[in-house]
Every structure is written in structure tokens, then in C-alpha cells.
Amino acid sequence: MIARFLWKGVDRRLRWLIALVLAAGIVPVLPDLLLPAGSALHVPAWVLQLVGKYLCYAALALAIDLVWGYCGILTLGHAAFFALGGYCMGMYLMRQIGSRGVYGNPVLPDFMVFLNYKELPWFWHGFDQFWFAAVMVLIVPSALALALGWFAFRSRVTGVYLSIITQAMTFALMLAFFRNDMGLGGNNGMTDFKDILGFPLQADGTRAALYLASALMLALFLAISGAVVGSRFGKALTAVRDAESRMRFLGYRVEGYKLFVFVLSAAMAGIAGALYVPQVGIINPSEFAPGNSIEAVLWVAVGGRGTLIGPVVGAFLVNWAKTYLTGALPEAWLFALAGLFVAVTLFLPKGVVGLWTQLRTGRARPVRTATT
């Protein structure tokens, strides 16, 4: 029933995108699983790792677009939810190291031994189980979003003030996580992960499975987002974005709509962060940096906000350009990236997807005129 609801909720273009994401997730993995090692059809593990990271970024951009593009909430703190999900997964991965760490302590992670911890902090208990970590990946970001949204939306904080609050939140978390007495690795964060669910993280098969999981996650998020924005709830959501005061006058509880989509978006960002960490092999407080949240918002702007397809396109386009430019123009890539953002802001206010729609409309109009 849930699958039918999700499939009926998305339009034809989004179905094609979901099918494309699923194909992109399955096709590169099959040769690695079915063909012998050394086959020319094998996709290098580093390619799967890199694209898997892009898939996680695309999921984060989609989460931001859900609240910004469809509800008008410009959040500048979604990196915090992404990082919290990553930390939950990082705690599980650290517990899996066990006595294979540098200090050989079967219970305490290496950084705790180095910092002279005598026993495991209370909030680390349970993270030796994958199911517990998976639940925390959902609960921790959602709880923070619920608390922040509850107070902010009930107080009718909107616009730039809400953006500043979300950015202050992620900055405060970054400062807190930098402290060694937080028991989360301090400045160095967590790294040296060994395995997940008993499978070594450095094995090609594990990397292929994580890549496939990232693609499935993005496809599921697209279906959920399409079902939400295509429903009557989604219509009310866009009405809140366009005319909040009128919706209040008509008797709608605007705070409830905002809070639901904000918490849903935070949960999506947390899951994306949890899949990101085992693929990159590290999580540290820099993931909370306000610049990360701003950059993710720019992915959405480049792709085209309020389209669902746009954030995925923007995340891939910008991060591919970033990867290429850091190698081709190591000293000037930041300027090139800034130029791209300025150009999109000035000449493509609806993003790349908006330009594509405009070109298609421009081509279609003369044809319709000729037939009439």
C-alpha cells in the first residue's frame, strides 16, 4: 500500500528520474558482483566511492529543497542534521573496531584511551548494535529539528531571522563538537573504521554495496518527496510558501505544516549523512561548518529549487565541477566556483532545470502556432 501511494504520488518525469537513479545504482554494481576480478567491465572502487558520495550530497540537497523550494523556509543549518546522522553511524563504526585499535582496548575507542577516559560515556551504550545506530540516525536529527522548529514556528520566526537561527545552531554545534570533553573525538573526530555489519569497509564488495544503498536511498527520497508535494498536503505547503498570512486567515495551522516538513527533511539529511561516513571513512566537527550548509543551498539554487529534479542535478553538477577544478585549477578553483554561482544567480534564477524547461517551451510554442 505504501509503495502504491508513493508511486501514484509522483508524476511521469519524476518516475523517469527515479528509474534513472535505480539504473545508475544497479548497473555499475552488477559487473563487480557477477564477473571475475580483473574483468574489463569492472567499475573501479574509487569511482563507486566518489559517485556514492555525490548521491549522499544529492539526498541532502533534496532535503533542503523540500523545505526551501516548497515551503519557503531558507535553512542554512541542514549540515548539522547531516553531520548528526554521520556521527551516529561513526559511533557504531568505532565500536566495531574493538581491540583492533592502536591501543588494543576492546571497549574504549582509541581517542578515549588517549584522553585518559576510564569508562565508556553513557550515550555510547547501544551503539555496538547496528539497529540501535540506525534508529538513532533517524531520532537524533529529527528530535533537534522538532525542538528548533517547535519554538521557531510557534513564535512565527520567518525569513532571514529563521535562516540566521539555523546557521547559529550549526555553528554552535560545531564549537561544541570541537571540545574533547564531549566524548566524540574532539578536533580529530572519528576515523580508522574497519568494518560494517561484519564486512570490511575497504573491500570492493562493501563499497559496491554502500554505493547501491546510496542510490536506493536517493530513489526512495525522490518518491517520498514527490508523494508529499503532489498530495493535498503538498498543495497546502506551497500555499503556505506563497501566502502564509492568507492561509492563517483561512484557518490552516501553518505551524504544523512547517514542522512536519522540517522534521521530515532533517531525517532525510541524517540518513544521507549516515551513508556518507562509511564511504569517506571519517567524520569530524568540520561537517558542521556553516559554509557546508550554504554550499548545499547553492546546489539547490544551481539545479533549480522547487523542482525535485533540480537539487539532484545541482548537487552532481557542482560537486563534479569542484572535483575537476581542484585538480585542474588548484589555485583558482574557488574563484571559478564562485563565478559559477554568480552566473547562475544573475542569469539562471530558476537554475539549470529552469533553463531546460524554458528552452523546451520556446521550441514547442512555434510548433503549436503552426498547427493552429
What would you note in describing this structure?
By secondary structure, the protein is an all-alpha fold. 71% of the residues lie in helices and 2% in strands. A hairpin with a 2-residue loop joins β2 and β3. It is globular, with a radius of gyration of 22 Å. Residues 367-372 have low confidence and may be disordered.
List keywords for this structure.
372 residues; mainly alpha; two-stranded antiparallel ribbon; disordered C terminus; 16 helices; two-stranded antiparallel sheet
| Uncertain ranges | 367-372
Reading the helices and strands in chain order gives HHHHHHHHEEEHHHHEHHHH
Mean pLDDT: 87
Count of β-strands:
4
Q: What is the distance, rounded to the nearest whole angstrom, between the alpha carbons of the first and last residues? A: 44 Å
- Biggest sheet, spatial arrangement of strands: 1-4
Proportion of residues in extended strands:
under 5%
Structural class: mainly alpha
What is the subunit arrangement here?
A: single chain
Helix tally equals: 16
Helix content: over 70%
Overall shape: it is globular
**Largest beta sheet, briefly?**
2 strands, antiparallel
Radius of gyration: 22 Å
